[in-house]
Amino acid sequence: MPVCTRNDVRVSGVPDGRPIVFAHGYGCDQNMWRFMTPDFEVDHRVFTYDHVGFGRSDLSAYDPVKYNSLRGYAADLVEILDELDLTDVVFVGHSVSAMIGLLAYQRAPQRFGAMVMVGPSPRYVDDEATGYAGGFSREQITDLLDSLDANHLGWSTAMAPLIMGNPDRPELSEELTNSFCRTVPDVARQFARVAFLSDNRADLPSLQLPTLVLQCSEDVIAPEQVGHYVHEHVPGSTFHQLAATGHCPNLSAPAETTAAIRSFL
Amino acid sequence: MAVERRRSDARAHLDQLLEDDPADLYENAPCGYLSTLPDGTIVKVNRTFCAWTGLTPEQLLRTKLRDLLSVGGQVFHDTHLAPLLRMQGAVREVALDVVRVDGSLLPCLVNAVEVRDGEGTPLMVRATLFEATARRRYEREILTAHRAAEESRARARTLQQVVIELAVATSVADVATVVVQRARQALSARGVALWLVDEESAPRSSVSLGGPPRPSGPSLVVARSEGLPAGLLEELVTAAGGRMALELAEGLRVLTAGGRMLGTRPELDAALRLAGLTALVIVPVTADSHRLGVLVLGLGPDDGDLISLRDPVDGELPAGDVDLLWTLGRQAGQALERARLHEEATRQAERSAFLLHAARLMAGATGVAETVERLADLAVPRLADLCVLDLVSEHGAERVAARHGDPARQHLVDQLREWAPPAHDLPYPARQALAEGRTQWFPAIDEDWLGTVVRDPAELHAVRAMELTSIVAVPLVAEGRALGVLTLSADRRRGPFTAADVEVAEQLAHQLSLVTAKAQRYEFEVRTSHTLQATLLPPAPPEVPDVSVAVRYLAANRGAEIGGDFYDVAPLVEGHVAIAVGDVVGHDITAAATMGQLRSVYRALLVESPSPSAIIDRLQASWPLLGLQRMATALFASLDLPSGELRVASAGHPPPLLVTASGHAEFLPVRPTRMLGAPPAPAEEWTGVVPPGATLVLFTDGLVESRWSDIDAGLARLLTAATRRPTTDPDELCDRLLGDLAGTHRADDIALLALTRRP
Fold first, then answer.
1. Domain tally for chain A?
2. Among B445, B444, B433, B528, which residue's Cα sits nearest to residue B476?
3. In what order do the strands lie in the sheet with B468-478?
4. Which structural domain, as residue segments, surrounds residue B186?
5. Do B122 and B166 share a domain, yes or no?
């Protein structure tokens, strides 16, 4: 199966525009970008995709060993860029995908031209040893991972074939609630573990690209001090504080977010 | 009427309730109502929700819904609920925990809709919250049970798989492979190794263990290992003498890096960390409470490079995993026992076939030399790379075989052979085996030890060049007598001898001892008998004036039998010569001894110069006194040299032949009396003359009797041969007679005496 089918890569915008790739973070799927992509389609080749296990990606490609690390997702991103043969890519990674972009850049730096990190965090768990404050204690992360099990968001094995097997029949998903954030419980659980238990602080200094750190206000997931930490450890990066609150400015304040990216580019 | 009125009152009351104030319905609804701005700020809340949370409306307004939630709820709100509301305008049945004013949690199910204007811009969010304490508890229980069932099913599958695979594993190596691979999978271990107690290193008490000192206690050998780095394996092996043996005795253990139990072994702890492992799990491998070995699993951090939320604790492993590993250890133990029995049975069968083959081959050998050759052919290279055989006798040791399986190394063995005893002592293992009278097993030998036992530098050089790794020296003992030593050696390419090899070597040595002892005894008897006979016969006939004498003695050459034949020529006083030929019944050492005695007694009798018949009479009479066990035939004659007068008496013996100088021959008609040893009867004497130039021929029946012809035919042939050509040379006549009659295959000895009266 072609990589682009596996990850349900969707292309829009102008064919000769600068490629801009949006990667969704922990939570839902590429629909997260629906309010921002129209603006970029005017002068960019816009790519959105789903991580394996989410949205309309190929669930059969899910490998619990490969995806037990962000490097598995980074490898997929590199494969996508290779298959599309993109260079000078503007990579926009939301949440955990900011780190996935960073790891992909380490594997294939020649593909990237600029990096936009939306609400990034290199480590969510506090690290007493170095005084690093990620925003969560170990106990809180444990509670968090436990509580996520309570929400399967309407997933049932009876539904799975319908949802995963009929990407061309959106009316099916109309029947189902919470469809954009639904995935197999086991995949959701493992992705949460990988997202919240990774530590990529040591990787930050390797990023030698024009980089924009977009920091939301009142973001409990990626607090301000974490955004500053990223900015300080990525050489020559730009820090931009958004007025948008919460963790998903791409949904809650798409115009402000778009403007910030455009002004950076 | 009354009934009707009551009915109409009830209806009016219901109507009044249904027309209730919508505000009251909102405030006191059986669910929580919330309205928020698109950013989550609460702008309206009902009394029910306030009561549930213990918060006042004033406290709730202007705060954000998210801030009322538990940490997990906050993250879920921001990553799922809020995005879903934006993307699809509504969410249903989202499970969230609201934190009450007293800090307790209120599990809720939340439904929410986003209210938008005509252009889709969000205006507000309306949410209803239902208390779901019981339902959520129930769900959690189901989830827990589901997970437990999943894990239990996975374990059951693993065990089932293991049982199936072990059932077809027939060798120890197969069993080890299955156990190591399955254990690794079941616990997602980074690496697994299986150590087995080296049963074979425990020798039987009749075998003496030699060589360099070895660690005491059960020695453990790695049967299979996967994924554990060499450094860690080495550390574990180093720990084998003490720690591992202890673990083996104590059962399933979990040792954590930096934990209490590894605190006493900093090297092992360091090796563990270097390998990126967090813990070692040690599982006993047992069969019927008999400890066969130990399975060691190296566990890494739970989630690869993910942050570990919980530090592993000494001795802790999920109960399900502990059960699984115990069962795996027991299954492995039973399978190992089975495989060992199977292997042992196969080995026994091979060994029996080999020993049977060896027994046949050696039994077919004639003589010690051939037996030894056949043994060396068998032992090398089937059993050993080098086979050395030293036989001992009263003269010292003799190296009768030194064979190497590799022709390229035979010259080294030949060098060793050059120092064969008795020039040097036997090499240490053989010497020790002879001294102790029991097998010496050197399972391993090293340079230092070699230096202490070899006799000189040249030997050390040769032994080193052969790369010997293991030696077994077995004394050859039969009938309580040490015959020699069989020494087998293995070189580096073969690997050390096992206890089973030692057993085969012993059995081979036992067979060799029996065959060799028999062959040696046989050869010894043959040699002794012939030596005895040779010493009993006069070495050469004495010089007697006026006669020429020739004697011949031909031993039987078929089989090792010896006869009791004799001849004797003795000059007496006054020109007399006494002549005798005899034949003791039987073909063995007793016959030879009897012949010796008979001849001695006869010589003693000659002192009195008795007549031939008197000799027979006296011998007959004294036979019982002499204690002679065998009967004998004999011919006694006395010749008066000046006159040629001959007197002859026979005790059951073939008649003498007289051959004249002209070539005429005749048997002298001596009437024989009974054999010596038979009841006495008077002997008759024949008297005649031997003319000058005539030859008197005395012989034993070996000359005229054979398996193919009777004595009369033999006598006729003798007569023909004697008359063929005239001669006065007794030597020439003897040679002719033997040439014509003796043949090349003789079953009996021949004594022949020819005496010619000088013409």
1. 1
2. B433
3. B208-209, B440-442, B468-478, B481-491, B386-393, B396-404
4. 159-305+312-341
5. no
The answer to whether the beta carbons of residues B580 and B572 sit under 8 Å apart is no
pTM surpassing 0.80? no
Structure-token pair, residue B218: 């059960």
Among B111, B131, B151, where does a domain finish? Answer: B131
The SS3 of residue A106 is: helix
- CA–CA dist B93, B84 (Å, integer): 12
Residues sharing a CB contact under 8 Å with residue B723, sequence separation 6 or more, in sequence order:
B659, B663, B664, B665
B49 close to A (CB below 8 A):
no
Q: Mind listing the pLDDT tens digit for each residue in B278-335? A: 888 888 888 887 788 888 888 887 666 777 766 656 667 777 888 888 888 889 999 9
Contact A81/A21 with Cβ under 8 angstroms? yes
B511/B544 same-domain check: no
A146 carries an active-site annotation: no
Lookup: tokens for B205: 């008490």
Tell me whether residues B306 and A154 touch, CB distance under 8 A. no
CA dihedral B198, B202, B207, B211 (to 10 degrees): 60
Which tens digit of pLDDT belongs to each residue from B503-545? 888 888 888 888 888 877 877 777 777 777 777 776 677 888 8
Closest chain B C-alpha to A11 CA, distance in angstroms: 20
Rg over CA atoms, chain A: 18
Is B39's CB within 8 Å of A246's CB? yes
Residue B428 included in any domain: yes
Return d(Cα B146, Cα B142) in angstroms, integer.
Answer: 6
Neighbouring C-beta atoms of residue B447, cutoff 10 Å:
9
- Apex CA B6: angle with CA B2 and CA B7, to 5°? 115
Q: What is the CATH number of the domain that holds A52?
A: 3.40.50.1820
Q: Do B520 and B564 share a structural domain?
A: no
Spatial separation of the C-alpha atoms in residues B99 and B73, rounded to whole Å: 10
* Within-domain flag for B144: no
Q: Is position A57 annotated as part of the catalytic site?
A: no
B699 interface with A at CB cutoff 8 Å: no
B61-99 confidence digits (pLDDT tens): 989 999 999 988 898 898 888 888 888 888 888 888 999
CA R_g for chain B = 55
Q: Which CATH number belongs to the domain containing residue B43 in this structure?
A: 3.30.450.20
Q: Indicate whether B541 and B681 sit together in one domain.
A: yes
Number of domains in chain B: 4
Answer yes or no: is A233 within a domain: yes
**CB neighbourhood size of B156 (10 A):** 11
Q: Which residues pair with B280 in a beta bridge?
A: B255, B298
| Residue whose pair of structure tokens reads 């010596």 in the numeric block | B676
Q: For B141, which residue in chain A has the nearest alpha carbon?
A: A150
Judge: B87–A28 Cβ closer than 8 Å, yes or no: yes
Residues B610, B726: one domain? yes
CATH number at residue B399: 3.30.450.40
Give the phi and the psi of residue A89 in degrees, each rounded to 5. Answer: -75, 135
User: Which residue from B656, B651, B671, B530 is spatially nearest to B583, judged by alpha carbons?
Assistant: B651
| Contact at CB, B143 and A178, closer than 8 angstroms | no
The H or E element spanning position A217 is strand A211-217
Q: Are residues B274 and B177 in the same domain?
A: yes
What single-letter amino acid sits at B455?
A: R
The interface predicted TM-score of the complex, written ipTM, equals 0.89
How many other C-beta atoms lie within 10 A of the C-beta of residue B171? 13
- Interface list for B 328-367 with A (CB within 8 A): none
Q: Which residues contact B356 (CB under 8 A, 6 or more apart)?
A: none
Q: What is the DSSP string of B478-513?
A: ETTEEEEEEEEEEETTT-PPPHHHHHHHHHHHHHHH
| B35 and B178 fall within a common domain | no
Is A231 annotated in the active site? no
Domain co-membership, B493 together with B564: no
Q: Is position B9 within any domain?
A: no
Residue B355 lies in a domain: no
